[in-house]
C-alpha cells in the first residue's frame, strides 16, 4: 500500500524516531521493499535488462551482515492483488510510469527500472542462502505486522503504511538501516545502526491522538486503495487546526491539520460521524462504507505466519473463500513456482546458510 506524503512528513520530524542497535533479534522483513532497495544500488545498470549477478551478491552481503549480528531474518513477500482488484488504478499508473522509464532507457536516457526477473532472482537467492521466507496470498502488510507483533520484534520495510500499524517492536525504515556500516560494541558483538519509528511518540505529538485513529487518518489522506476525491468536500469545508511546527508546503499542512483535528475524537466511529456531517446526505452512507472498508486494511490479519515458519502450513481465510486447494496455497507460500538455478554460484557452502534455530 502506501500513504500519500506520509514518509516526507515523518522524516521532517526526527522526534518520532529513536536510535536502535539491531542485533540478536528476530527481524520481519518486507521482501518487496528489500529487493527494490537492493536493486537500486548507486552503481546499478538498468539499460541492459538487469545485472542479476551483482544483485544476487548484494542479497548475499545483506543477509551475511544480519547473520554476523545475530539477527534472524524472516522475509515476507506480497502475493496477488485480491479478487476485488481495488488497487487496479494505482497499478495502471505505475505501469505507465514503468513504460515511460523503459522507453527512456532504450534511448539512452537515465532513470531506474526494476528488471523483470528481479523478484525471481531474489527468491532464488533466499532459497540458496537458507533465509526463511513466505509468499502471501495477497498484500503482505497485515501479515508482516501480525508476525512482528507476535514476536515483539521490529519490521524492516520502506512502506509508509508501517507508520500506521501499531507495532510492538517498532518500524525500521530501510533508508535508516545502515547495514553497510556495521559497528562493534565490545563483548556484545556487532550491530546494525538503525532508526526506529514509534507510533506512541507520533500519537503523543498530536493531541495526544488515539492510535486507533491512525487507520482513519491514512484512509482520509489517501493510499494505494482510495484517493482523496471522495473527501474533497470535507477538506474544503472543515477548519483544520494547524498546531505547531508546520511542515513545508500545503500537502504537509493538510497532514498535520488532519492529525490535530482527529485528536479531538476518542475512537474512529465518532470521527467518521463528524466527517460525514460535511458531506451531502446522499453521499454519507457510501462514504461511510468506503472509509470503514478501507480501514480494515490496517486490522490484524487472520493468517498465522509463525505457524507457517514452524510447520510449513499456510492457512488464509481469503484463499478458503476462493476455494484454493491447500496444496496449491502451501506451494504458493513456499515459492515453489520458482525453479532452482545455478545463477548464484559462488559462496554456497554451509557457512552461508542461516541456522534453523533463532534467537528468542
From TrEMBL:
Superkingdom field: Eukaryota
Pfam families membership? XPG_I_2 (PF12813)
Residues annotated as domain Asteroid = 134-203
- Enumerate the InterPro entries for this protein: Asteroid, Asteroid_dom, PIN-like_dom_sf
The entry's family comment says: Belongs to the asteroid family.
Please identify the protein, giving its name as recorded: Asteroid domain-containing protein
Organism, scientific name: Catharus ustulatus (Russet-backed thrush)
